[in-house]
Specification:
Number of helices: 10
Strand content: 15-25%
Helix content: 25-40%
Strand order of the largest sheet: 7-8-6-9-10
Number of strands: 11
Oligomer: single chain
Distance between the termini: 28 Å
Radius of gyration: 19 Å
Length: 255
Amino acid sequence: MGRALIRALAETADMRLAFALERTGHPDLGADAGVLAGLPACDVALSDDPLAALAKSDAVLDFTAPASSVAVAELAAQARIVHVIGTTGFSDGDLKRLSAAARHAVIVKSGNMSLGVNLMAALVREAAKVLPNYDIEIVEMHHRMKVDAPSGTALLLGEAAAEGRGIALGEHRVPAREGQTGARSDGVIGFASLRGGTVVGDHTVTLAGPFERIEISHRAEDRSIFARGALAAARWGQGKKPGLYAMSEVLGLSR
């Protein structure tokens, strides 16, 4: 995703790459970020110093890991810059720290930055509302290296379905099933996760009712869709009041 973000920035006329961050000890530290992304040199060296990087920037685009994102959020709050978070897998404690940081900075956080997925979430929300008695199941597949399950996008879609039903996802979420589970409980939202190969991201929400099924699907074919969405979020956040925002607000989708 870091390389995808650098390539997307290189194609914009209104933004420029100010820094590129990696973890301490990474073998590419000091290398030119443009070259690492397969582009001409851009005179921005890969660094492990977020404080210096954020001090000279208007926004930070963050697709890392929960611990890193929380730490960057606190630095972004000090610098009063826009923080776009595409990281997934946050704990409740992490989310509390992000909310605290959002009192001082604009944070745009989403389990998925693509326009298509956020439109899909709006459709799922409406379908769950209109079809209150249909069973909802969410299936996602990602590449074999993904470490969290279900995906942030699957949880985003589950939250949309729960919102359409007026319920709390945490109280109605059912993870992957195994063994003698008994009959399906009414009103639950089921999740299943598949991992393998180089799949960028496939998600399907099924609403199963009497004698019919509605399936709403999205297949990501290139990570550039997430990068372009992150750039849109960074633009949108300029001049906004501090707060924790979602991509649906960036895209103007009704909730």
